Each structure stands twice: as structure tokens, then as C-alpha cells.
Amino acid sequence: MLRWLLILFALIATPAAAQLAPRENSIKPELVAEGPAVPGGEVELAILMHTKPGWHGYWINPGDAGLPMKIDWQLPEGASLAPLRFPVPDRLLVAGIVNYVYERDHAVLTRLKVPADAKGMLPIRASAQWLACTDKVCVPERGEFALDIPVGGSSASQRARFDEWRRALPRPLVSPAKFAIKGDQIEIAIPLPESVEIGEPYFFPSDDGPIDYAAPQSFRRSDDMLVAELKRRRGEPASLSGVLALGDGRGLEIKAVPGNVPEGGSRIGDRGFDAVLLAILGALVGGLLLNLMPCVFPILALKALHLARSGGNEREARRDALAYAAGAVIGTGLLGTALLAIRAGGSAAGWAFQLQDPRTTIVLLLLAVAITLNLLRAFELPVLAGEHSPGGSFGTGALAAFVATPCAGPFLGAALGTALLLPIYGSVAVFAALGLGLAIPFLIIAFMPALRTRLPQPGAWMVRLQRFLAIPMAATAVGCLWLLYRQAGVIGLVAGILAVVVLALLLIWTGTRQRNGAPAGWAALAAVLILTAGAALLVPRQHAAEARVPIGTEVWSEAAVAKYRAEGWPVFVYFTADWCLTCKANEAAAIEREAVRDAFDKAGVKVLVGDWTNGDPAITRFLEGRGRAGVPLYLWYASGNAEAEELPQILTPAMLTDRALRPR
After folding, report:
1. Strand 606-611 relative to strand 571-576: parallel, antiparallel, unpaired?
2. What kind of fold does domain 554-660 have according to CATH?
3. pTM higher than 0.85 for the full model?
């Protein structure tokens, strides 16, 4: 249905668009010949599709939705073209729909049969129609391309480029594949020696109909057979054809006929229980480490002080800890569920997606200011320091979950990236495990009497400690103001400062009434909520922040990386965001150190920066391709054709200088 709607839209929109002012195509074709035309021989042609960042075109089978390219050729008499040969496509999930696409420049190859009597110049002309899409909009485009190929002459002048494009094509499988229909499943047995390395295989069917695109695919090895297990959508095909992607851009062109498919074998790429368990363990450890972050540690310390004030009552301490853990678990679980819902809606989003919106930033700013004033004892915040109350402790846990989201420190990057690839139950379990990791220290204190009884007794030292804890919380507030300026410009910064001033005056007034014994709770809460909602509504919604590029670096793009690698330069890529505390710490402590800059300059290292502050979709998709849900991510490409080395999420200057100074 979606495909027919797109076809209807293209038929209607294309003539209408021709009557409007011309727009620049987002995908531009260019016709290239490998060399001169030899009379009676053949010459390879390439339709090079130049694709703007953020846009994509479609494979011969576009998947659940989309349109393949259509070309009308005008050839000299006696000339003919072989069928088009397409490179291995990519998968793109938009609003729960699986598309088979190309998200970067790619070349479609064909062979031209040259007439035996050709001489002079051989004119090749073509007009084409295609669909260019982003994650949110599709535009039918059309264009013409032409090439005059000299007849005779020297050898192929474009052989190096064509060799590269030919490597991107799927290779024909010599031995025939067999397939069998078993209930609602189609199994394809593909002859493939065990010595062939396989990353994450995927079968792209050439024909629409038999295969359910959205269903997961599983694979198993049975001796020298790779068996694909695919969900059947409809019909009983007489044959099957498609491309088996092996990972790293490699692919095999498959043609399968009915036959026997072996049983048994070992599973490949199974993201089942083991993957869920490892991701949950990583989220637990990562959540535990988040307690050391400057915006989370004060909250944990306040809860510990709360326990100290309680006098060690075991029942109340355990009830308090369980409520705090429930708030943290449900808080991270809800954030993760919201992330999955946004991604299912077609948006490219990752962990900490909410901080890519200035409205959320101003809410976090006001929270940080309120906690800072509470630590300075300007007023008492019941959620943090009131009587033992399950509701208050639950709110504290949820608050800790919210303020911890700018971080994706050690263990969390891979765990959260895996979570986005798991079934829904596994994804939610990983996000909930992150909240449990946040709550572990408080649970240990509450459920281990030996630790709880060793907590120091209440006294004047607690006031001094609270004032000390106000320092990192105030720094968090300043960071939020800076981030607000980056996201919403001067207007956003002014709105944030005014909201902070009004909130501070309101909370100081509340604290004065609290110390005088006058009730102010509900009135103050209503005023704070109105202020927060008003500030969030008034702050500009547009993203004003441009990609931050420090001196001596360049904006990251896959094309830039490929260019420098082809030229033989070592490349260091780091992905960052203004709201990522781990990123900023690594940049200050390692990346932007003078010794590192000198080593990079000496070795000719090209440094590329991917700024994810506003959720760049191209960066989001690249992170997903690396199995990551957020930043930071650090990649080192040694000179030559070596694959990227993923560096730890906590950097030291030596990690970078040692790699820069290695002999080439």
C-alpha cells in the first residue's frame, strides 16, 4: 500500500513540480565511462549518484516503501546496454518500515556494446526519475545525463575508480542455492565455505512479495552451507533471487531454486538471551559508575545523609532504598521507552535525545539551580531531605535518572547500543538495569547493617559537606546555561538567566517561610511548576548551535574520512556533544593537550570532530552502525587501509601520542 501511495504521489507531484521554480536535486547522477569505445567491443559505464548528506535513494527492490530508479536511454544505432548492476544496499528503518537504500555516493554499473561501425564520438543520452528521501520527507526527482565517448584511443583511463566501484558490487555465487518453504518460514541454503568470514549477514530479496522485510532474519552454519531463515509474507515463489550481505560492504548475488535445506547447525549473529544478559550487565556497571558524575553524586550523597539522620532504623532505611531504586529503574525505563518510540516514529535519535532540545535543557537548568540552593540550605526540598517517605525517595530516584542522562561513560556505550538492536523486552530490560545500577550504592548501604551503622552521626560536618556538594551542582547549572546558549542563542540564554533569577528568589522566599514555620509548600510548588513550564514554552525551539570545530580539526563526514585514508593519512575521529560530561572531560584531559597536538602535527594526523549536540541524523546512523547509542566514541585509523580501532571511553594523552608516533 505504501509503495503504491508513493507511486501515485510521484505521478502527481512530478508534473506539478515542473511548473514551480526549479529546485536543486538532492541526488545528482553523473555518467562516467571507464575508457574509450572500441568498435565491436564493450566499455563499462557507471551512473555515479552524488547524494547529499541526510538523503538517500533506493535499491532495485526498495523494501516496504520507496521507488527504484527508472532510466530511459537514447543510444546510437546498433548499440545496446547490459542490465544494471547495483552495489550492496543498506537497511534503513523509518516508522517501523524497512527500506533498502543508499545513503551515500554510489555507482550503478552497466556495459555498453559498441557498434562495429562506430567512429568519432559515441553519444550516450539518458533521462531518469528517482525518489530522494530523508527520514522525514520524500521528493520525486528527475534529471538528464549525457556522455560522448571517443571511439578508439588509449586504454581505460578510469580503471582505478571503476575497480573501486566493482568491489562494491555483490559477487555472483557460482553454485546454485536451494530454498524450501516450511510453514510461515522460507529457508535458503547457500553454499559458502566455512573459511569465509561473516559479520552480520542479511538477505536482500530482489523481488517484492515472498519475504517479510520487517521480520528479523536468522542464520545458521551447517558444514559448508549457510542457511538463512526468513519469515514468509505471501505466495509460494518458483525461485528466489537477491543479495546476501556478509558485512563490511561485501555481498553475494544469490539465485535459489527449490530443493533440500539441511537441518541443524550452529547459529550466527544470534542476539538472544546471551546478548541481553551481557547488555544488562554492562548497563548495571555503567549505571553504578554514573554515581561518580558531578550532577549525580550530590544526590547520592544527600540520600546517604538522609540515612544518617534516620538514626539507623532498618525498616525505614530499606523501604527508603527500595523506593529510591524503583524511581531510578522506572525513570530510566521510561526514558528508554520514549527513545524507542521516537525511533519507531522514524526519527534518528540516540541516548540523551531529550537534551538535544533546548526546552529540556532549561528544565534541567532549573533543577540544578534548585538542588544547588537546597544544598546551600536556602530552603528544604522534601524530595531530597524531608522525612522518610516512599514518595519522596521515589522522586529522588527518578530525578537521579533524569540528570544522569547526559553521560554514556564506560560500559554504557556498547550496552545502550546493543539495547537498540534487541527485541523490545530486552531493550527495556537494559534501560531499567541502568537505573538499578544508579541505585546499587544506596541499596547496599540500606541492606547491609554493618555499613549503615558505620555512617557518621549527624552534626555540623553535614552542613559543610552539603555546601561542598553545591559546587559540582552549581557547575552543572553553569554548563546548562552554556548549552542553552549553544542551542537557542542569545534569546535562550537571556530566558535561562531570567528563569534562574526568578526561581532563586522564589526558593529563598520559600526557605524564609519554612524557617519561620509558615506553610509555603503547595504554593511554592505551583509557582515553580508554572515558572518551569513558562520558561520551557518561551525558550526558542530552533537549534542555533553549529557543529563545534576546534582549531586544527575538521567537521566529520564519512567522505572526509575516506578521502584522507585514500591519501594515506592517519585519522583520529571523535564524536562529542556539549551536554556530554565524559566527552568534555576527555577533551580537556587528553585530546586538547599541547603534547597531543604537537604529536598529531608531527605525524600529520587528520582530526575530525562529529558534534552531536543537536542530534545530527548522519552521526546517529554512524553511531548505530558501530553499535553505539550515544557519545563519546573515539576512532583511530592508522595510515593505510587498516580498519578503525575503537579507543576506550576514558582517554589519556599517552593513548593518542603513542599511536601518532608509531612508524608508518
Report:
1. parallel
2. Glutaredoxin (3.40.30)
3. no
